[in-house]
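Notes from hallway chat w/ T.B., transcribed later so I don't forget. T.B. wanted the structure written out for a chain they're using in a teaching module, and asked if we could keep both sequence and C-alpha cells in one place. Agreed to drop them here.
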Amino acid sequence: MGNLKRAVDGLIFATVALGFVLLYVASGVVPGWLLASLFAGEFAYAGASLAVAKKYRWSYYLIIVLAVLVLAVSLPQPEHYAFAATGQYLPLAIFALGSVFQVCLLVLVPVYLWRTRSRPTPPPAGPSPSQ
C-alpha cells in the first residue's frame, strides 16, 4: 500500500510543481483575468496538496474534484491543441503532461481510497461473554 500512496502523493506534488511552471510561462502571455483564475486554481491545488501532506483523508476527495475541474476547463480549449501546430512545445508539454497527471489521479486516487477504506472489525472468535 505504501507504493500506491507514494505514487498518488508524488503525482499530486508534481501537479502542483507543474502548475507553478504554468503560471511562470503564462504570466505576461494571457489576459489578467485568465492569469488570476490560473492563480486561484493553483492555490486550490497547493492547499489540497498541503492537506495531503498532513495526511487528511478528505484531501484526496478534493483532489478528485480539482482534477475533474482542470480537465473540464482545459480539454475543450482549441488554443491548447494549437500549441502543436504553431510549434509552441513548452506550452504543449505543460498541457499534455498536466492532462496525463489529472487522468492518472482520477484513476489512482479512487483505487487508493478503496484500498484504504475502513472496514468493520470482525467479532472476536471464541465463546461470547454471555455464555
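Follow-up for T.B.: The longest helix spans residues 89-115. Might be a good example for the class.
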